[in-house]
Specification:
heterodimer; A: alpha/beta; Rossmann fold; B: alpha/beta; 15 strands; about 40% helix; about 15% strand; globular
Chain lengths: ~180, ~375
């Protein structure tokens, strides 16, 4: 049986572990550790290796859901994780100091993977901070020359994460759901 | 006698005097429980025709021309020779009218089911693109187009513009069937809309031509605006401008396009709409993907995706209302034969989609 992956990435605290939990049919295996560096300002624990969840499909197929660690010092893991992935879900925390810098960083880091597959972006915590606005994200993305699905999401809401993944799938194949 | 179907029928009266039209209005609102609405010719779906009118022949011919194949309720002093279930013998009682409305609803449902069950033609298309009018500006009265300015949508848009420009709150008051005022409060700065209407009431107002609406506009001063904003911010109530305008445009469109849309133009989206925070439309992801990545004319999008044109038109109207959709004469349309490719993992993606939708709220397609 083939193994397929959806990769979740983004900075610390953007909601990757929560998003995977909302999709997974098994309890998420999280490799969290107590944060000992500047991460501690955002959350008490952080993912040091990866998060893992699993979606079981009717036909017996399995979709592996991998969450990358959010810290740059673990980015050697990203390349390993993204092999065999069908698409990238980038979650960005709107309360961080410079979400655009985060966006550029992750899009550049996964440039090759995105070119081969596709990208969907979810903006979290917009209820806490409305700035930057969705319009400003679109402007920033147009500078990068891409028009991916980008939605405001609450990682705790399954509907939001479902729609984000749907956006990724439809942008890969508009014939879905015929 | 009660109305059994849920779809509100928009009817225009042909060959009746004002008093009779007022009688219809009262019957539809009261005993008819709002299941039918008397509207002007331009926005009607069906008709009520007075066969005793001096010009009844030309009224029937004109109706057939404008609404080909669509049934109409007919009234006359003489009983029908053919047991026509849509015929009402005068003097028409309220029960007779409601029975005729039910029969009309049933005929429409039967027709819709027949169309839905029709086998697709050789190219898999149910929509006859050639039958659509080519240009919006030539079809002012066509059922494919509407002018947002003739409806509540235009009022809301103007009020939002005023509120944003002046930094002052605007209140729209609309009188409902029971002579009570329903309010829409538009707040600049926090860009929120607050309304005392539920979705059903808002939908009904959106379908009503402005000329038939009893409305008032109040502009608030700075102090009143500040008090309103503080109160709403503290409550956490209200809807965003974009969400509200998108929904109002969907309700108003009912599968039609804003006046001035050129059907031959390539329909483009500046970017993906924020679909997680907008009123849901069936097939919105598929329509968006094509409009963003492989722009085509609107009828062609419907054809390629094999979905009703009205659904694409409603989506376009909503996206146009929030300023992200436009028609472009100069954009090169993707070749008709250049169909979007199925992904090599199409089957797998279908499986993921099925799994995701098991737990997602269904999308009601109420706009076509």
């Amino acid at each position: 049986m083939s193994n397929y992956k959806i990769i979740f990435t983004g900075p610390v605290g953007a909601g990757k572990t929560t998003a995977i939990s909302s999709l997974s049919d098994i309890p998420v295996i999280a490799t969290d550790e107590s944060a000992s560096d500047m991460t501690v300002n955002r959350k008490l624990t952080t993912t040091v290796a990866m998060d893992y969840g699993l979606m079981k499909l009717d036909a017996g197929e399995r979709i592996h859901l991998y969450g990358t660690p959010g810290q740059e010092r673990f980015n050697f893991m990203w390349e390993i994780l993204s092999k065999g992935g069908i698409g990238l879900v980038l979650l960005l925390d709107n309360t961080r100091a410079d979400p655009f810098q985060d966006m550029r960083f992750f899009i550049n880091s996964f440039e090759e993977f995105i070119a081969k597959t596709n990208l969907a972006i979810g903006i979290t915590r917009m209820d806490l901070d409305q700035s930057p606005s969705m319009a400003e994200y679109h402007d920033e993305l147009s500078v990068l020359g891409i028009k991916p699905p980008i939605f405001e999401v609450d990682a705790r809401k399954r509907n939001d994460i479902n729609q984000l993944v749907e956006g990724l799938l439809f942008s890969l194949d508009p014939w879905l759901g015929e | 006698m009660t109305i059994i179907n849920n779809k509100q029928l928009r009817l225009a009266a042909y060959g009746f005097d004002e008093r009779s039209e007022e009688g219809f209005r009262m019957a539809f609102k009261g005993p008819g429980q709002g299941r039918a609405l008397l509207v002007d010719d331009g926005s009607a779906e069906f008709g009520i025709i007075n066969l005793d009118a001096v010009n009844s022949r030309s009224l029937l011919d004109e109706y057939e021309k404008r609404h080909p194949g669509k049934p109409a309720i007919k009234l006359s002093v003489s009983p029908s020779d053919s047991n026509d279930v849509l015929h009402v013998t005068k003097p028409a009682s309220i029960d007779d009218m409601l029975t005729a409305l039910n029969n009309l609803s049933n005929e429409i449902d039967g027709h819709a089911n027949a169309v839905e069950n029709m086998p697709p033609s050789s190219d898999g298309e149910k929509l006859d693109v050639k039958s659509l009018p080519k240009k919006g500006r030539f079809g002012k009265n066509s059922s494919f187009f509407y002018n947002p300015k003739d409806y509540l949508q235009g009022e809301i848009h103007s009020a939002m513009e005023y509120a944003e420009t002046r930094g002052l709150a605007v209140e729209l008051w609309l009188m409902d069937d029971e002579a009570s005022w329903k309010k829409i409060i538009i707040l600049p700065g926090i860009k929120k809309v607050l309304t005392s209407m539920n979705n059903k009431q808002l939908h009904a107002f959106c379908c009503l031509p402005k000329s038939l609406m009893n409305s008032r506009t109040y502009r608030r001063n700075e102090k009143e605006t500040r008090i309103l904003q503080d109160r709403i911010e503290a409550d956490g109530r209200g809807m965003g401008f974009e969400y509200f305008l998108w929904k109002v445009a969907l309700y108003t469109s009912q599968g039609r396009l804003p006046h001035g849309t050129e059907l031959e133009d390539v329909a483009c989206l500046k970017h993906w709409p924020n679909l997680t925070r907008l009123y849901p439309v069936a097939d919105s992801m598929r329509i968006t993907t094509l409009m963003v990545n492989q722009p085509r004319s609107l009828p062609l999008i419907a054809k390629v995706l094999k979905i009703p044109a009205g659904r694409v038109f409603a989506f376009y109207s909503a996206a146009y209302a929030i300023g992200i959709a436009s028609g472009n004469r100069n954009t090169i349309e993707v070749d008709n034969h250049c169909m979007p490719q199925r992904h090599r993992d199409h089957g797998l993606f279908g499986g993921i989609l099925k799994r995701l939708r098991k737990n997602t709220d269904s999308v009601a397609d109420v706009f076509v």
